[in-house]
Request: fold
Amino acid sequence: MLRKILMQLFKGTRSLLTGRFYRFINIFFKLFGLRIKDIFVYIDKLNSYIYIDTNSYHERGILVFGDFEIGTRQYIEKIVSTLNNKVVIDIGANIGVHTLNICKSRKNDNIAVLSIEANPEIFNKLKKNVAVNNCQNIFLVNAGVDNKKGEFE
Reply:
């Protein structure tokens, strides 16, 4: 029941929510020990649907503010608009915010995106977010990137 209420509350989230509301949401989730995963929302600044895990501080920020790393997002949009026949690599893709931004902001399909995420659980979220947005020419890799050859323990 509570999950349905919260999903309705956050349905169609826009970036109109204030920092005060964000603090309220954080306190609310902590006080009641809420463990809600995969709230499905449309984030208009990303022009994308995205699954949000309310247990993640980072993802709750996207849910409440409707955006993430605004300056980076705008820079990516500017750069991608000038590219043609290129590959963009998103190292540490997390849940795919920048990957989706590249997918939605490119003017043609001649740009491929290679998204790399090391954490298997977060990689699964990345896969879901890319799939639900029907992004083309996105290649996902569940691996870590380092300047040394070897395996991570």
About this structure: Residues 83 and 96 are 20 Å apart (CA to CA).
